User: What shape does this take?
Amino acid sequence: DLATLDAGLALAQSQFSGARVREADSLAGALRDSFESVLGPLHPRLADVAELLGLIVKNYRGLQAYDVAIRHYDVALRLRSATEGPTSLGMAATLHELGNLHRAAGHPTEAFSLFATALAIRRSHFGPVHDRVASSLGAMAYLRSSQLRWAEAEQLSRAAIAATPSGAGAPPKSLAARVGLRGTMLRRLERFAEAIPVLREGVALSESAWVRTPRDAGSAIVSGLSLYRELAIALAATGHGDEALEKFDRGAGRLLVERLV
Assistant: This one.
């Protein structure tokens, strides 16, 4: 029955989150056929399954399976448009993930367009300040930074920070990444005096987020060495060599601690 299928979908999503890829892929494939037999060919649950299959391919099978992932996302978009409407939040989430896929595949024009469409939908639902709005702006900023379009990336990261909720509900890790990106872009633009206080804030936010999350080398690079290095470069460029060396050493030490813990 439907309750059993929903439980199966939740299990498949859990297996995906736990990196049990083979089990998640096998179960999701079986659920696709079962949901269609129970609910018919047009139902939001089928979009959920298609998107999960796309995520599995995107995250674990690499760009050699790009076309397979695109097909799954295309199915999800078609189903969401037909069942939830073209401006639904589900549609925005799928567009955002498809943008991530195109970004990873080296298709920046397509990725930016998808992020922008997701952003417009999210703004229409949530208004200017919401973490999902900030997430879309942040994705656009990271895309532009990867293209070395630093001025645009700085503007977009500033907009992402402004869209991030404040107070107890603010996501510390996401905010740290957005502030850190803006500081890095200011440094790349050689706006050192502006970059230093932003990078200091990014380092402080990263340290706060670091103690709340599982410790791995990936989070260390974000919360430690990378931002400390950017801050060190900005400090050195403004004649603060001793502090620059101290910050760089601290970032390198943080990475070492992360790898040993």
The CA atoms of residues 97 and 211 lie 28 Å apart.
